[in-house]
Design a protein that fits this description.
The protein contains 24 helices and 22 strands. By secondary structure, it is of the alpha+beta class. The strands form four sheets. It has an eight-stranded mixed beta sheet, covered by helices on one side. α1 crosses α4.
Length: 740
């Protein structure tokens, strides 16, 4: 060690601290001549005091001297470097293989997808290399699948590039090394012909051990002899020369000796269904060795032959095995939209999504740049059966995810479409999606957000195109109008665009309803707000007394018949610069008043002050307050909600939900009672109060005005029997006897 004034103890402490700093990658901030913040200094000080029993100042001093020692003594540095040794991580291979095979994949069905994808990649490599073949012979790749129940084996064979002994060691004997990925890298990024290759992680092959005890790979490449790679339970493997059935030209034959519990994968229907599900759109033909039954007509030796007639015949079945092509559908989304006919889109929709209707519209597009993907979205013409009972059925998966034409999943936690678009059907194909290694789970990332936003934007464009056709738009709203309104509630980013599509019933429109842009176009001069009211039906809501003032001015009012309508309109706030308000709220601005109307209102408040106090005293907690109304023109009374009150429609819904869940409904805020000072019934009540406010008839008359307001405003009458008695007494002209 170089001479220094520090004693040996401090030297040791200095070296220990220096090594600790380097080990935690903190040397950049502590060893550089950069000022250390008070917070960082405090944190380091507390750590050093606990670890080394020294103060921050002493340690920094030691660090400074250590830096001097490091720069002044190259010999010391070389000695430290010479002493360092590099080690590689070690692993118990059998344990790692067990994790890969049994923990990586959640669904055993995945094995067929992975192995067929590998076969497709082998064919793609052969196709690419054949482009430079001087013989000019076109390469026709194919993948063949044979399920043999007698030998308990499943064979997947391709006529692709094949493998050499070295390839077998590297690609199958080395875990997580992707031969496809290395092939692509060797070609370079400029070779677009290789972009169809699927594999990337180098573990898909081992999914074979999910269903097989023994895996045998027979392969032949252009450069070598036919070889056999074999492994039992993924513990070890052997490579030897193969003497079995020769492979024509090049290719690979994968033979799976199935586990006892995996015998279902030898069933013709199961294999066919899995191939169509996962590999329907593979670019090379997938052929299944299937049994075919044909019927031959032959003479019937047992039948009686009549003279002059032809000998009787009979039909006998004849079974044979043939190569049957499974993947007959074409991946339309991979083609330019201009090259696809409407009939092709319709047929693809019906076969891919097993639909019986023709789509109302579709949108086919691709995105290139930061994220690359292709997508095809359909809007059904009718409500899918699975959504007819539950509009947000969790079992409905609107988007099928593909990576280079290979189906990955339609069930992932992070949805590509918001739930208000769950009625759509579509396909997304992208290699940029953040999948986990098993390619089963979609992970959260910025890529998902970009794709999701573009899908939503394109879906909105599709809906706008539908809106250009009045008849088609009417059908669209009939089937999916509620989803659009849910979007208004939940999707704040696209609220304005959705409000232009959402259709509501209106006091001035027919059964088709109206959109907010159409409503605005019909607004009267001087109208500054958009009004709406909720009700059990359009007729009931339109006849509500709270609308009398608006009707007098000729204002149109939207009607929220569905609870979704009401929630959507409540959350709108404003549309195109116009406030959207509930006409049944006490705070609803019904337009400007003239000076004469203001004067009449103030006079009525003073004139009816005693009557209003009396009614409030009689009704008690049934109402929040009693006021002279500015909105009533024909009716004697009406109930309106406070600013944060709950409409009668919403109260009934909440009450029903509480009853269904076994909870008690606490009820909403008490409504306000408004009285029409010009109505004869209210004038009569005023006279009765002035004459004798203690009389039972006066109290009953006040209560009856409240009951009338409840019924006409859509509220439930809390005491139907009492209401009936008061009406009968009024009809008969006799005062009801007071019960003791």
């Amino acid at each position: 060690q170089p001479a220094t004034s520090l004693d040996r103890t401090k030297q040791d402490m200095s070296l220990r601290f220096l090594l600790a700093v380097i080990a935690t990658e903190a040397n950049a901030s502590l060893l550089q001549p950069t000022p250390v913040t008070r917070h960082a200094r405090s944190a380091v000080a507390s750590q050093m005091l606990g670890l080394f029993g020294t103060s921050a100042d002493d340690a920094c001093s030691m660090c400074s001297r250590a830096r001097f020692m490091r720069t002044s003594s190259a010999r010391m540095s070389e000695a430290v470097v010479a002493e360092a040794e590099t080690y590689e991580f070690e692993a118990e291979v059998s344990k790692v293989m067990d994790i890969i095979i049994n923990s990586l994949y959640s669904d055993k069905d995945i094995f067929l997808r992975e192995l067929v994808s590998n076969a497709s990649d082998a064919c793609d490599k052969k196709r690419f290399l054949s482009l430079s073949d001087e013989s000019g012979k076109a390469y026709e790749g194919r993948v063949r699948v044979v399920a043999d129940k007698e030998s308990n084996t499943l064979t997947i064979e391709d006529n692709g590039i094949g493998m050499t002994r070295k390839d077998l060691q590297n690609n199958l004997g080395r875990i997580a090394q992707s031969g496809t990925k290395k092939f692509t890298e060797a070609l370079g990024s400029a070779n677009s012909d290789a972009t169809n290759l699927i594999g990337q992680f180098g573990v898909g092959f081992y999914s074979a051990f999910l269903v097989a005890d023994k895996v045998t790979v027979v392969t032949k490449s252009d450069e070598g002899e036919q070889l056999r790679w074999e492994s039992t339970e993924a513990n070890s493997y052997t490579i030897a020369k193969d003497e079995s059935e020769p492979i024509e030209a090049t290719g690979t034959r994968l033979i799976l000796s199935m586990k006892e519990e995996a015998d279902k994968y030898l069933d013709d229907f199961t294999i066919r269904d899995m191939l169509k599900k996962y590999s329907e759109f593979i670019s090379f033909p997938i052929e299944l060795w299937a049994e075919k039954t044909e019927y031959d007509t032959v003479p019937d030796p047992d039948a009686e032959v009549k003279e002059g007639e032809e000998p009787p015949t009979k039909t006998v079945p004849r079974k044979s095995n043939v190569w049957e092509k499974v993947n007959v559908a074409k991946p339309l989304w991979m083609r330019p939209p201009k090259e696809v006919e409407q009939d092709e889109y319709d047929e693809f929709y019906k076969t891919t999504f097993r639909a019986y209707d023709s789509p109302a519209a579709h949108v086919h597009f691709s995105l290139e740049g930061q994220v690359e993907f292709r997508a095809l979205l359909y809007c059904p013409s009718t409500v899918p059966w699975e959504l007819s009972q539950d509009m947000f059925n969790d079992k409905v998966k609107p988007i099928k995810l593909f990576v280079k034409r290979v189906f990955i999943s339609d069930n992932f936690e992070e949805q590509l479409l918001p739930r208000w678009l769950s009625f759509l059907k579509g396909i997304v194909d992208s290699e940029d999606l953040p999948l986990n290694v098993s390619r089963e789970l979609l992970q959260k990332s910025k890529v998902l957000s970009i794709i999701s936003k573009r899908l939503v934007r394109k879906a909105l464009d599709m809906f706008k195109d539908i809106a250009k056709d009045e008849e088609k738009f009417a059908d669209f709203n009939k089937n999916f109008g509620r989803y659009i309104k849910v979007g208004v509630i939940e999707d704040r980013d696209n609220k304005d665009a959705l409000l232009k599509l959402a259709t509501f019933a209106s006091t001035a429109s027919d059964d088709k309803g109206t959109t907010l842009p159409e409503y605005k176009a019909r607004m009267k001069e001087g109208q500054a707000k958009v009004y709406y009211i909720s009700g059990a039906s359009k007729e009931a809501a339109a006849s509500s007394p709270v609308l009398e003032g608006l009707k007098k001015k000729g204002y149109e009012v939207l009607v929220a018949v569905d609870q979704v309508d009401e929630v959507a309109l409540q959350g709108v706030g404003s549309f195109d610069g116009l406030d959207v308000v509930d006409a049944a709220k006490e705070s609803a601005d019904l337009g400007e008043e003239t000076d004469e109307e203001k004067a009449e209102g103030e006079a009525a408040k003073k004139d009816f002050e005693e009557t209003l106090s009396f009614v409030k005293k009689v009704l008690g907690a049934k109402v929040d307050k009693v006021e002279v109304s500015k909105r009533l023109t024909k009716s004697p009374s009406a109930l309106v909600q406070p600013q944060w009150g709950m409409s009668p429609q919403m109260q009934r819904l909440m009450k029903a939900q509480a009853a269904a869940s076994g909870d008690d409904f606490m009820g909403g805020m008490s409504a306000n009672l408004e009285l029409n000072p010009k109505h004869a019934a209210v004038v009569k009540l005023k006279a009765m109060v002035e004459e004798d406010d203690a009389a039972k008839a006066t109290k009953d008359f006040a209560t009856l005005l409240f009951d009338v307001a409840s019924v006409s405003s859509g509220y439930e009458v809390s005491d139907p029997a009492g209401f009936a008695k008061r009406v009968v007494a009024l009809m008969s002209g006799e005062e009801e006897e007071e019960e003791e």
